[in-house]
Amino acid sequence: MNPKNPIPFNVILSGFSRNGLAFNALKTFSFMHIYGVPIDTYTLCSSLTASSSIRNVKFGQQVHALVAKSGWSSSVFVGSALVDLYSKSLVIDDAEGVFDEIPEKNSVCANALLSGYGEAKMWLEGLKLVRKMPMLNLEYDHFTLSAILRACAGLSAIEFGMQVHAYLIRRIYDVGKDVFLQSSLIEMYGKCGLVGKAWQVFNLAGIGKGKEHQRDVVLWTSMLGVYGRTGHNEEVVRLYQEMLKEGIKPDEVAFVTVLSACDHTGQVNLGVELFKSMTHDFGLDPGPEHYSCLIDLLCRAGQLDRALRLVNEMVHKGHGSCSVSMWGALLSACKDCGNIELGKLAAQRAIDLDPQNVGVYIMLSNLYAKLGMWNEIEQLRELMKERGLKKDVGCSWI
């Protein structure tokens, strides 16, 4: 290829970036820079997109330096890519700096910064930017409105969220076609405690005619999450069954919610069936979150042998070591059942993962106390003193 013609190199670079081969894209960019291939906005944007996909801030900063030297800082396209890189890497100060330096801003760069504020949970800063957008002659698009609703949910700003809801109904012709906006509305109402409003939005999402208006797995999962977070566990199970009747295939997130609901309602058989159906009926591989829900469910039901088998199965399938919470659930169940051998094993594994976790020592002490093992309790107290651990004193926020 002619090294003076950047087009074929840009095609290769873009192809790598779009297909998830970020490292190959960055190597291509380095090759172009070393051998003097002309670099344009297309090259810079593709390389910055590749950097942001793997959160490679250092390489992105090197590209940023090249941008400043080559005079491309005024390009809104390059600027938006830089804002997106820093936002996804949660380097918010740099993202704000780049955004402020763009002379002619557009909604894309504003949305990239809004996304960064959302990831960093800087809700107030996000709303301040939203209020500045009309002064910058920037219009609110679907992504902007979703970001505003997310900020309202984070701040529990229900009145502002309802104003945004009214605005998008007036300004957007067919809200029913935008799944993410509807999902944002459902989650906003749910996180603000208005489950009835979330249910209304969910129901309205299915009113339109044609397949494009049918509620997809994103909306169903959002509504399942609302019920799950607000303690409506029986409604979670009911809604999951309705979801299957409508022919919607649940995803991994939906299964976490419904397994958690089974955990809180003590429906052991249903929980086990759902866990098995992930693989057998839907071809999904259970992750650590799914194992954690089922292990906790079996522990609450006192079925320690099944829980331990599930723990071993999880490790055998390459999901890594269990979390402290899983071993803690097993230890708590051992305390209730008086199973000292398994309880000591669970406590040791939890302590190996988090040696400074006082709660594990307290649960093990309670297990010893239940069985009258006073010498072991004294040894445990001495061990806590050696490690400088103390039980937190109870207090009230009221």
From TrEMBL:
UniProt KW keywords: Repeat
GO biological process: RNA modification
Ranges in a coiled coil: none
InterPro entries: E_motif, PPR_At4g14850-like_plant, PPR_rpt, TPR-like_helical_dom_sf
UniProt keyword Ubl conjugation present: no
GO molecular function annotations of the record: RNA binding
Pfam families linked to this entry: E_motif, PPR, PPR_1, PPR_2
Endpoints of the signal sequence: none
The UniProt record lists the keyword Repeat: yes
Taxonomy, superkingdom: Eukaryota
UniProt PPR repeat ranges: 216-250, 287-321, 357-391
Protein name: Pentatricopeptide repeat-containing protein
Organism: Quercus lobata (Valley oak)
